[in-house]
Automatic annotation (TrEMBL):
Coiled coil: none annotated. Residues 347-533 form the Histidine kinase domain. It is found in: Cell membrane; Cytoplasm. It catalyses: ATP + protein L-histidine = ADP + protein N-phospho-L-histidine. Keywords: 4Fe-4S, ATP-binding, Cell membrane, Cytoplasm, Iron, Iron-sulfur, Kinase, Membrane, Metal-binding, Nucleotide-binding, Transferase, Transmembrane, Transmembrane helix, Two-component regulatory system. One of its GO terms (molecular function) is kinase activity. Its cofactor is [4Fe-4S] cluster. This is Oxygen sensor histidine kinase NreB. InterPro entries: HATPase_C_sf, HATPase_dom, His_kinase_dom, Sensor_HK_TwoCompSys, Sig_transdc_His_kin-like_C, Sig_transdc_His_kin_sub3_dim/P. It is a multi-pass membrane protein. Its main location: membrane.
Amino acid sequence: MIFIYRYASWAFTSLAYALNDSGTLSHKLALIFLLFFFVTVFTYIYRRYRKHGTVLKLFIAAEALGIVVLQFLTGGMGSPYKWYVMNPILAAGVYLNALYCWSLLVSYIGIQLTLCYAFFNVSRISLLDVLLQNMNMILVLALTTMAMQVIGTMKRELIKANERTNETMDHIKSLYHIMETASHNKAMNMGQVISDYAVKLTKQSKAFFWLDNREIEDAPESSQTGWTAEEERQLFQTLAGHREQFRFERDPFFKSFPEWGDFLMMTVPMTTRFVAAIGVKLDPEQGMERRRWLVQQLIFLAELSAIFLERYELERVENQLLVTNEQNRIANEMHDNVSQSLFGIVYATHSLRQTWHQLGKAQVDEQIELIQESANQAVRELRLAIHSLSSKKSGGPTWMATVKSHLHMLSRLNNVQIELHNTGEQYTLPYSYQKAMFRMISESAGNAIRHGHAKQIHVHLALTLRQIELTIRDDGIGFRTEKLAAGGEEIGAEGGLGMENMEYLARSLGGEFSVSSAVGKGTEIVIRIPVQAAERIQ
């Protein structure tokens, strides 16, 4: 509305000036078109630099000074362009602080009245009389300035309210996302999700989730966002050297590592066997107000992490109890059924061995047939016991179900269509490969959504006894792949493993990693990993 008013005020004041009797029409038209040019230039500058206070102050002052010159050329206080000064005052009232706005108004009125008194005072009246004659205009400008200050304050409060609303929505979405991921994937990707969302919520470039999982085979993994795989290893080694300090910290604290910089850290308050910490890398120029806000975000994430880790621990114990109960049940069944059948077979075989020479052929055949029937019964009962132990046969949770659930959650949360096609037998895939493939699928889909702004993602996973082939295609904005080779990666540099780390993970398993993309053409990632013979046997 301010920018529309600028052109409207130019049109009306120029029309009033053109209809004035003084001056020639050609000079008036030249001045009007010159003014239109400056109106366009200043309007563009205000649009472009509305968030740059120093630039705005300089150009608003320059425009106000230009209006003083314009009035001087067109009749002083009698010029219709005296009302055009409301344009810079409106801009100052909306975008700048009250002190500058009122200083601008007082300076303009003082300069304008002084010039009118010195050059246009035909009646030789006093400066006070000149002030009283123009009091109506001064009051209008003062009231307009007050009104724009109120509007500007309301606008800034509205922007802050919108920012707080968006921040709250980000918290809610993050909470939903993390809970969904932790629910469906347990601890497989929990550390990565937490570090990713530490970056997202704090608006920092680097964050980590470190877990002291020494001598704990089934513990979740530490993870980070923003560093390379080699830097990750070195960073976690550095953190491990301070584990005793982390064990006794209860509040957020600042920690400086000479080779890594300054961090804001928070230990995860837990009653389980784990010791964990969340940290974000700080920028040197950040003030205390910003850092206090970061503390709030870190406390929020630490509490969530504690809930997830404790729930994971409870689920682990529960699963162990379920397995133990199931093992006891199967042991009892095998003792009551299979063991008895085997004992009967052993006893019948021993008895037949002692008496076979005293029996006729028909009786021996009958005894052998009974032993064979008992053996078949024992085999059937043993198969039933094995069947109940198999998650594949009993319908228990599978790795592929975990992948599908995670992609379905990403699809719902980001309103993106994700299609997953898989071929081959997933139960032959070793656990270490399952873990790596999940991280790469999750990261590539996340990159396509966050950085590629994709609306459709196609994931194809082909599993054979000798090779894994993963293809991810999206219809996103794409990027120039030569930046990857030059070390200027854009996709993945801000979240997750990143392209470079995905490639490192694939090659660490002896595989191949390739990316094809172009601006506006989407991205395709192809990963081929051979499955080693020893691991296939396991």
